[in-house]
Write a structure and sequence with these properties.
The protein has 868 residues and is of the alpha+beta class. The protein has four domains: 129 residues, no CATH class; 166 residues, Jelly Rolls, CATH 2.60.120.1440; 199 residues, no CATH class; 276 residues, no CATH class. It is 36% helix and 26% strand. A hairpin with a 3-residue loop joins β21 and β22. α9 packs antiparallel against α27 and α10 runs antiparallel to α12.
Length: 868
């Protein structure tokens, strides 16, 4: 059953709502008023000779009125009570029975029904209606047919129920809510109705249910690996007694045991709902629902799977294909002007100029088909992907894109304008070949009926201008002899068509002029955003203004290939001098902290910034703008900690910071932090005071301890942390104006030795070869990666097939670097690697690292993030 459809929960919610409802106070007052009016009317109409009933004579005088029904209900009750106790009066009453019997008391109630009675009737009707609606919807939401099919069995697979169990064979189908179980030393694979593949380890059991567009695997126990299929609607859920996992198109493992559950992600992203909270996990991440269920290496968690090595082999093949495409596919040449930019609306705030990749797409497809023939791993993956594909064949789709590209010019422009507070998207291209409208109509006619967009319309200029602005949904495509344009907004398309001769007014804006500068030096992929104009439509608070980002003007990013080398550039400009957090990145300057990092470092992030004291002032201004009492709270915190955060901590630090992964990742990742220090003596005193303060608050349990040792003229400090269950250590020293931190004294001493020897990353020729060519002698910040050397020590942790995948990845991977430059009114970013260093080979090596051995130092109770 879908975990979201719980009839008991719905009934409890309805009952709770009824209990919380109260009668209307005005209705209650009105009912009381009617009672008093009824009593007053009886008082005014009574017989004055019978003002009171004093004995038998008075009762007998009223018998005929009582039997005729003309006596008030109150007096009827008094008479009936007297008759029960007086035999003489009862006999007298028998003699007068000829008259009509009085109506019972309940029929003499006021005709207006009490408010609470009406409320109870309405509530009962609501409950009945809700229950009926739920039953009808629940029944209609369950589609017929099977839920899964057995694809493979290694050993035995049983269909289990209360009446017994029977073995299943390949091809057998599983129905709604039916449970399947693998006994000892047995494994199985089942294909779900939506195309997802579920692999069962031994002693696993689950059932499958479908409600509306959602499929739920109810895992009763054991370990399963799910390869979730891509889907357009709904989700795939895996639910056990501890958590619910929500996915679409990813690969993950769920292990449900007696002590708790563990969710591990192999590919993609999953959402885990556990104890009322939602956690998002990425490749290599792991979550445990109980502290007694510890983290394990991902390789160990899925080692029983026959597909454990397949994922890594596929990564290696995809990286090889990517590099081959980069080396052999000829991209379009640079464009030094745009004939489309001047035609855009003046309200344009987002702009993207894309080359016509029609020929490049065809070349890439040819390389892909060649690789499919040469690689069994790639071919198997592709055949499996195509077998579950409902849309058109990819090769046919690419061919149609290539044919379509022959009709348009060398550039396609995507833009978004703001009109009357609403976004107005527009796509424009030049037409260089006749017959475009007929080609598009033919493409639409060839598409399967289920894939056609009913709102898509192909119009010529006359048809467009005759259209009225009635509300509609869908894409409109205008095809002219000279231009083709598309937009979901009719008025946007009509305005574009009407102003083609005189231009849309965009070219006269400052934003357009900045984009034209990019064309003057040659443009490939070009993206721009008018942040200043976009911010005018936002409510900017005082705290955001203090941050400095309220002064953003333009964002321009571009990627192009020059003489066979990739060039990436991005620029963030401001209105005037940068201030606040936006000014923290300092002007380009030498980085002495890189002298503590070895040439074989796997990853480095470094930068020069404003000194920490000035940054502290910026944060204080922002916090005070958001909360006028922040300064009081800060002063109170300083009194309790017995330090002054700015004078004792911030002012002791300089503006340079380096963080690096430098050395083996096993058994503990070899991280290091190098920070510039102005006053090491005062900073050390602050550390000691903070340690004393933490231990004082902890009471008898000593949480922190700080040791020191002299060696080679330097003092090495070791900060130990322990809470009784886990322990950690950070070592550091001060040397040559820097604070050097690491996970061990050996790491810190090695950093000092690298600095003293001069054999550092900053002196590496390979490192310098990656730096972008520009007029800067230094950089303000950089991000560097070269994971292949760092991953070498994990080779002994891999299986033979995984080792082969790793060797292929290492051979294909390349180091990359991204540099940033701080200027007075701008921040610029540059890189020679594709997509600013986010190449597939880098991500693949990172995934292999996580798959082979998660960092033990980052495992935590309940949730164990396994990223580096």
């Amino acid at each position: 059953m879908d975990y979201q459809e719980n009839p008991k929960q719905k009934l409890e919610q309805a009952v709770a709502a009824i209990r919380q409802e109260r009668p209307d106070i005005n209705g209650m007052n009105a009912a009381g008023e009617r009672v008093w009016q009824q009593l007053a009317s009886e008082q005014n109409g009574r017989d004055p000779q019978l003002d009171s009933i004093r004995g038998c004579n008075d009762v007998r005088a009223l018998l005929r009125l009582q039997q005729s029904g003309t006596l008030s209900p109150a007096r009827v009750l008094l008479i009936q009570d007297h008759l029960h106790e007086c035999p003489a009066c009862r006999r007298e009453a028998e003699k007068t029975k000829g008259a009509a019997a009085p109506a019972p008391w309940k029929q003499e109630l006021p005709k207006a029904k009490p408010q609470h009675f009406r409320w109870m009737m309405a509530a009962a009707a609501v409950i009945v209606l809700a229950a009926a609606t739920y039953v009808i919807q629940d029944r209609m939401a369950v589609p017929g047919g099977s839920r899964a099919r057995v694809e493979q069995v290694n050993g035995t697979l049983y269909l289990v129920s209360l009446t017994g169990e029977r073995p299943l064979r390949v091809g057998d189908e599983i129905g709604e809510g039916q449970s399947v179980r693998t006994p000892s030393e047995s494994r199985a694979m089942l294909r779900l109705r939506d195309g997802s593949l579920v692999e069962m380890n031994e002693r696993a059991q689950f059932s499958v249910g479908i409600r509306r567009q959602n499929t739920t695997i109810q895992l009763e126990r054991g370990n399963i690996i799910v390869e979730a299929a891509k889907r357009r609607t709904g989700h795939l859920y895996v639910a056990d007694r501890d958590c619910v996992v929500s996915v679409t198109g990813t690969v993950f493992s769920v292990n449900s045991g007696m002590k708790g559950s563990r969710v591990s992600v192999i590919e993609g992203e999953v959402r885990v709902v556990e104890s009322g909270t939602t956690q998002i996990l990425h490749p290599g991440d792991q979550l445990s629902t109980s502290a007694s269920v510890g983290a394990v290496p991902l390789q160990q968690e899925i080692s029983w799977s026959q597909n454990a090595d397949k994922h890594m082999a596929l990564l290696a093949e995809l990286v090889h294909l990517q590099n081959k495409v980069q080396q052999n596919v000829h991209l379009p040449g640079l464009r030094y002007e745009s004939k489309l930019l001047p035609l855009l609306p003046q309200s344009t705030v987002l702009y993207a100029g894309v080359p016509n990749y029609a020929d490049a797409i065809q070349q890439a497809d040819q390389l892909f088909q060649q690789e499919l023939q040469e690689s069994a791993v790639l071919r198997e993956w592709w055949q499996q992907a195509q077998s579950h594909r409902n849309g058109p064949n990819l090769e046919d789709l690419l061919q149609k894109l290539h044919d379509l590209g022959q009709y348009v010019g060398n550039e396609i422009v995507f833009s978004v304008g703001i009109t009357a507070g609403h976004p107005s998207p527009l796509v424009v291209a030049q037409v260089q070949k006749q017959g475009l409208k007929e080609f598009i109509v033919q493409l639409l006619a060839q598409a399967p009926h289920k894939d056609r967009d009913p709102g898509l319309e192909i119009l010529d200029p006359q048809e467009l201008m005759s259209r009225h602005s009635a509300s509609r949904e869908g894409m409109l495509i205008l095809v002219r002899p000279d231009f083709v344009a598309a937009s979901p907004d009719l008025s946007t398309l009509q305005n574009f068509n009407a102003h083609l001769n005189d231009g849309g007014g965009f070219s006269s804006t400052g934003f357009a002029m900045r984009l034209q500068q990019a064309y003057s030096s040659g443009a490939g992929l070009l993206f721009g955003a008018d942040l200043q104009e976009m911010e005018k439509r936002q409510n900017i608070n005082h705290a955001f203004q203090q941050s400095g980002f309220a002064d953003l003007k333009y964002l321009i990013a571009e990627r192009k290939d020059v003489a066979g080398q990739t060039v990436n550039r991005a620029e963030l400009t401001f209105n005037g001098r940068r201030h606040g957090i936006a000014s923290w990145l300092a002007a380009p300057a030498p980085m002495g902290g890189l002298d503590f990092v070895s040439p074989t470092a796997g990853a480095v992030v470094a930068g020069v910034f404003k000194n920490a004291g000035a940054e502290f002032d910026d944060l204080l201004n922002i916090a005070s703008a958001a909360d006028s009492d922040f300064g009081i709270g800060l002063a109170d915190a300083e009194v309790k900690a017995k330090i002054r955060f700015k004078e004792d901590l911030a002012n002791t630090l300089g503006g340079e910071l380096v963080v690096a992964l430098d050395g083996p990742i096993l058994p503990v990742p070899s991280w290091k932090v190098i920070a510039e220090v102005y006053d090491p003596v005062r900073l050390q005193q602050t550390f000691e005071q903070l340690v004393a303060d933490v231990n004082e608050k902890a009471g008898q349990t000593r949480v922190l301890s700080l040791d020191k040792q002299e060696e080679d003229g330097l003092t090495y400090y070791a900060l130990h942390f322990s809470d009784g269950q886990k322990a950690a250590e950070v070592d550091y020293t001060f040397t040559d104006g820097y604070l050097v931190l690491g996970p061990s004294r050996a790491m810190v001493m090695e950093a000092v030795q690298i600095h003293q020897s001069g054999n550092s990353l900053a002196q590496s020729g390979a490192f310098h070869a990656l730096l972008p060519a520009d007029h800067y002698a230094n950089v303000s910040a950089l991000a560097y990666q070269n994971l292949a050397p760092v991953l070498g020590p994990i080779a002994q942790q891999l299986t033979p097939s995984q080792l082969q995948s790793w060797q292929a990845l290492a051979a294909e991977t390349k180091p990359s670097i991204v540099c940033a430059y701080g200027e007075e009114d701008a921040i610029r970013v540059a890189s020679n690697s594709r997509f600013f260093g986010l190449d597939l080979n880098t991500l693949a090596l990172s995934a292999l690292l996580k798959l082979s051995h998660p960092p033990a130092s980052k495992q935590m109770n309940g949730i164990q993030p396994m990223r580096n």
